[in-house]
Amino acid sequence: MKTAAWLLVGLLAAPSFAAGDAILEAHTNEAFPEAMLRVQDAIIDHGYVISRVQRVDFGLTQSGFNEEGRYRIVFFGRPQEIRRLAEEHPRLIPFLPLKITLSQAENETETMVLALDPRQLAALYPDPALAPVFARWRADLRSILAAADRRHARRE
Amino acid sequence: MKNRRSIGSLSSALLLLFSGTVFAAPDGERLYQQHCTVCHGERGSGGIGLPLSAQKLNMVDDAYLAGTIRHGRPGRIMPGFPALSDGQLQALVGHIRSWSGGGSPRLPALPQAGDPVAGKPLWGQYCAKCHGADGSGASGTGVTLSRQRAFSVMPPALNNPGFLDSASDALIRHTVENGRADTPMQAFRGSLSTRQIADVIAYMRSLRGSAAPAADPVPQPATLITESPYDFDATVFGLRTALQGNNFRIFPDRNLEKGLADELDVNQRQLTLRFCNFAELYRMLGLDPRLGILLPCRITVVEDADGKVKVLAMNMNAVARFFNNDLITEVFHKMQETQMRVIEEGLF
């Protein structure tokens, strides 16, 4: 009975998975600063610490590319978890801390909010000890992106 | 007995669940939301994926739309959805059509098969300028930092197997004769005879490429780890010098835990060197604006408890597949070579 119940739970909970779904993605029509704030608030609400925001657009503009487009990357993690993973699984270091990218092309009203789907990491690092970590990251990232998704928001 | 009854009830529930899934008519709107919205936007407004405007939809038939969804564009950003049933494809196409207001156009078949040999010079004269001599089209994708929504269409790769398997000769003829409104694709009715168009199509089909990047014969590790013969500080110095020698702009080094832990508690023996070539980055964001999810221009130097110093970097060749784009695979391959050169020079 228990097995059958788990089968049912599995059937109901199985996520839809389209080919090429390596990237988690949300869209918002909120103004860029509001979208950024919403993402950061959601990250903190999920128990993470934001370590920095990298302004990629700033570097592009300084180098003579890009005039109005926005491209920022938010780095975040749980301090103890990042420390533990770096010590016990140093191979993960190039993917740490976690990242969410916000991108808005010039003259666009829509901001893309993007993250690598941790299922990809699970495939690259098939270690049973890491599986629950990747699963939780995925659930959190999906939840954070869902909080940022404001496709029908009115732009100021 | 009680257990047997419970299992029976559960089986019935499962049966109902499955029968509902199997026999209910596919919901095109739900399928669109599930598979298409993130790239093409709600109601086809476009994004990373091309806009699905009424004008464009009215130029193509249902078979082309269904084929494009099923096959995708191997090696380009549009993934294929081979697991969708015919009914689901039909529902999706129906939903997409619902906002264009038009139906599938009736396309007259070509009266005769073309001759690729005769089509080659015509291709060179009329098509190669935009679509390339080999039919590979232009690079890039939907809305990016380097290409805005106003320029929503670029010359597509006509040698792509996904396109060739989706577009009938009749559809291609229709496009060649009538052009595409609001794009540089002009109408060639009057310039090319039906016979010549058939020849061009035959030549186009001969250009069919293997657009999908070759799969790696051996699965690659996602992290490249190199043991340094030097101590921590000398390793960092050597790598920094090598990055400068390879014309990268270098940003201040950053400890892995910086910003996460108290400044005094940060592990000083985990240092990330950050660098960038902005010209290359700008070009890459034009290929796919989502590349920032990896931010690969980082090399981390770590000293473990035994005093061993290791250099860690992302294996670009292993992660390129995330983007389903052979242009990115090619760029990542070159970046990987550069990264390895930097590490070799830095540890020399």
Write a structural description.
The complex is a heterodimer of chains A (about 160) and B (about 350). In chain A, about 45% of the residues lie in helices and about 20% in strands. Chain A has a five-stranded antiparallel sheet. Chain A is α+β, with helices and mostly antiparallel strands. Chain A starts with a helix and ends in an 8-residue tail after the last helix. With about 350 residues, chain B is of the alpha+beta class. In chain B, about 45% of the residues lie in helices and about 10% in strands. Chain B has helices at about 1-25, 30-35, 35-40, 55, 60-70, 85-100, 115-130, 160-165, 170-180, 195-205, 230-245, 280-285, 315-320, 325-345, and strands at about 225, 250-255, 270-275, 300-305, 310-315. Chain B has a five-stranded antiparallel sheet. The longest helix of chain B is centred in the first third of the chain and has 22 residues, at about 1-25. Chain B is elongated and about 75 Å long. The interface between A and B is large, with 64 and 70 residues.
Count of structural domains of chain B: 2
Secondary structure tally: strands of chain B: 5
Q: Unreliable stretches of chain A, pLDDT < 50, 5 or more residues?
A: 1-20
Number of helical stretches of at least 4 residues of chain A: 6
* N-end to C-end Cα span of chain B: 75 Å
Assign an overall shape of chain B: elongated
Strand content of chain A: 15-25%
Largest sheet: number of strands, sense, barrel closure of chain A: 5 strands, antiparallel
Average pLDDT of chain B works out at 83
Number of helices of chain B: 14
Structural class based on helices, strands and sheet pairing of chain B: alpha+beta
Oligomer: heterodimer
* Largest interface, C-beta closer than 8 angstroms, per-chain residues: A-B, 64 and 70 residues
User: What fraction, in percent, of the residue positions of chain B are helical?
Assistant: 40-55%
Q: Identify the strand order in the major beta sheet of chain A.
A: 1-5-4-3-2
What would you call the shape of chain A?
Answer: globular
For the record, the CATH architecture of chain A stands as 2-Layer Sandwich
